[in-house]
């Protein structure tokens, strides 16, 4: 099998490592079958469509819709690399699955309007498949329910999709929770690479990044621990199974 690539843009080494472990666990891929590309510090590897099965882009503390002057050098570097990768993803029809930061970057690349209108604080939300979502091959492979619980925490979101994009899932606060462009390029607003325990662990690291009020953190965690969000991680395994080359 040709390897997949996991793109990471988290400068915090411990968070990057736990994210890596989650992607491996939920996708079912082995270490040797998942190249790790740390774009916050390194260029994307010299790989082409014929070398890999697909690309997974995880979340990030970066925010694509922020003005350039407030972005760090690492954020600007990672963003430029991601857009260069997305040029090739679209041109060469490389399977792609982006989560959270992935929906912002793929969205901007494809002409979506991304802004802070539909941001959601850390929590568990109801996600509902659209008609197109229920018929989508990846969603069907993952056996997602028509309505399921997704884990979110984001400052920006899709405001408007371009006409050529297909909305696959929606939510009460963020109207675009998942979309597809082409036939094999996907993005989700919710986190398929996280479960309840891992999103709580990550939130502790990012408690002062504006995703929630730090004063309410423990109450948010208590509420999360009463929820179940076991369906979204199926997307990672389905992506790996559907597009393994």
Question: Any guess at the CATH architecture?
Answer: 3-Layer(aba) Sandwich
The low-pLDDT segments are: none
CATH superfamily membership, which one? Class I glutamine amidotransferase (GATase) domain
The gross shape turns out to be globular
Radius of gyration: 16 Å
Total domain count: 1
SSE pattern, N- to C-terminal: EHEEHEHEEHHEEEEEHHH
- Under the CATH scheme, which class? Alpha Beta
Strand neighbour order, sheet with most strands: 2-1-3-4-11-10-9-6-7
Describe the sheet with the most strands.
9 strands, mixed
Strand % is: 15-25%
The average pLDDT is 95
Helical stretch count? 8
Number of strands: 11
SS-derived structural category: alpha/beta
CATH topology call: Rossmann fold
In short:
With 245 residues, the chain is of the alpha/beta class. The protein has eight helices and eleven strands. Strand 10 (178-181) and strand 11 (185-188) form a beta hairpin.
